[in-house]
Amino acid sequence: MRIYFDHAASTPCDPRVVEAMMPYFTNDFGNGDSQHSFGRDTAKAIADARATIAKLINCQPNELYFTASGTESDNWALKGAAFARKNRGNHIIISAIEHHAVLVSAEWLAKQGFKVTLLKPDETGIINVSELEKHIDDQTILVSIMHANNEVGTIQPIKELSKVAHDHGALFHTDCVQSVPYMHIDVKDIGADMITFSAHKFYGPKGVGALYIRNGLKIDKLVSGGGQERSQRGGTSNTPAIVGMAKALEIANEQMEQNNAHIAKLRDHFVDRVLAEIPYVRFNGNRDHRVPSVANFSFEFVEGEGILMLMDLAGVAVSSGSACSSGSLDPSHVLLAMGVPIEVSHGSIRFSFGKNNTMEEVDYAVDKLKDTIARLRQMSPLFNVKTGGTYNV
Amino acid sequence: MYNSKVMEAFANPQNVGVIENPSGEGTVGNASCGDIMKITLKIENDVIVDAKFQTFGCAAAIATSSTATQMIIGMTVDEALQVTNAKVVEELEGLPPQKMHCSVLAEEAIKKAIEDYKSKKQ
């Protein structure tokens, strides 16, 4: 048995996506900037893919720029906007629960002299509008808050946050990497100036992302080079991946309702069983505002990496945001920002379900999880099988 | 990222538990750092005849705890004091660099348990 519950990390390519990509590796391999027929064919494929995605997210094709990853898009949005607007102010606001692509870019900007504020979420992982209102001022040039959080799956009130940013003359960027396969993204409706996308989170290929930049907004370049992407992002276009991204988004949007219903059913069954059958467990996240795919738990008195490894030995792939797995001693910045006690945060595991998972897989995983937690607690000096646990030993 | 010897020690750890009325006991680490090891020893005529551990920590912490207890059973307390984290890691045929700090826990817990034994003896 080999079960994949880590769809927030990456998803398998849909076979229809792979099929759409294949010709562009071998037959239609030309460089989209070449003048000959090979180049023209490639350029047309890229233009078609751009038009397809633009239509699905309700923007103009020339507002969409392909990149190599969600991380690159986030870097470009933050650094490009910050430097483009540095004459208007030096204050940047992000949330404390951003992906590292945004978080570390903002840290870098802070080293370049920008003032960076991190907004704290509430205990369910929501960034409240009042929190933004409290910190935004006339020096604020950019606000970046993710649409759905990658660790706990909470969905942010992005339209309202975007409005507050604009009311104060700041640009608004949102990272939609985790929300795309589960929500229809309408850039006009969201009202953001820049939006980040990543194909491999919605059953597309790795190595391709996109940044939406609304018409009329000019930000500094991140990748200098040739004339690709209307001279805003150098580098030969990754045609197969771009074609695959468009196909993947098409499929994701077509099947969204049925996939969401299926995934939410798996998630709910999983959450119900875990809460009913495993003691000393904490559910992390928001029950109302969330993507259907993610369930994050802290299992008290045990450490996340041990859970991950024993589950892996049982054939179930899950993710631990905790300390040791990332090679540092810092537990998840998201859970800590949400107020999860540091000792509890060490035992946190993210389960993220996908369209190909089954109820049998969920039941098998819960059974293995019960064994795993019991085994690790038996080994834990913090836990007494008879009396329960305490963090004071 | 772990070698098969570490995985085996983690998946099938030896000497898990607590010795009742131990000759020596040592607990090191803390929950906020994500690593705690508790070791209890049964010592007869300065020879460690049994050792048990409980560990809250990552796979490397559990594997080194298991291996360290196996290494010291049968040793005199003075020999056990010479068991460094490097020797435990050597026994496990290596740990990833970012996991080396986890092995220090076992060495410190053993030292603390032996100190406890020696202080009780006096």
Task: Provide keyphrases for this structure.
heterodimer, A: 393 residues, alpha/beta, Aspartate Aminotransferase, domain 2, Aspartate Aminotransferase, domain 1, 2 domains, seven-stranded mixed beta sheet, three-stranded antiparallel beta sheet, B: 122 residues, alpha+beta, Sufe protein. Chain: A, 22% strand
Describe it.
The complex is a heterodimer of chains A (about 400) and B (about 120). With about 400 residues, chain A is α/β, with parallel strands linked by helices. Chain A is built from 15 helices and 14 strands. In chain A, the strands form four sheets. Chain A has a seven-stranded mixed β-sheet with strand order 2-8-7-6-5-3-4, sandwiched between helices. A three-stranded antiparallel β-sheet of chain A has the order 9-10-12. Chain A has a two-stranded parallel ribbon with strand order 1-11. With about 120 residues, chain B is an alpha+beta fold. In chain B, strands 1-2-3 form a three-stranded antiparallel β-sheet. In chain B, strand 1 and strand 2 form a beta hairpin. In chain B, helix 2 crosses helix 4. Chain B starts with a helix and ends with a helix. The mean pLDDT of chain B is about 95.
Chain pair with largest interface:
A-B, 26 and 28 residues
From the N-terminal CA to the C-terminal CA of chain B, the straight-line distance is: 45 Å
Supply the CATH architecture of chain B. Alpha-Beta Complex
Class by alpha and beta content of chain A: alpha/beta
CATH topology annotation of chain B: Sufe protein. Chain: A
Mean pLDDT across the residues of chain A is 95
Count of distinct structural domains of chain A:
2
- Total helical segments of chain A: 15
Helix content of chain B: 40-55%
Distance between the termini of chain A: 38 Å
Helix fraction of chain A by DSSP (H/I, runs of at least 4): 40-55%
| Percent of residues in β-strands of chain B | 15-25%
| Relevant CATH superfamily of the largest domain in chain A | Type I PLP-dependent aspartate aminotransferase-like (Major domain)
- Spatial strand order of the main sheet of chain B: 1-2-3
Number of strands of chain B: 3
Low-pLDDT runs of chain A: 322-326
- What do the pLDDT scores of chain B average to? 95
What count of structural domains of chain B? 1
Largest beta-sheet characterization of chain A: 7 strands, mixed
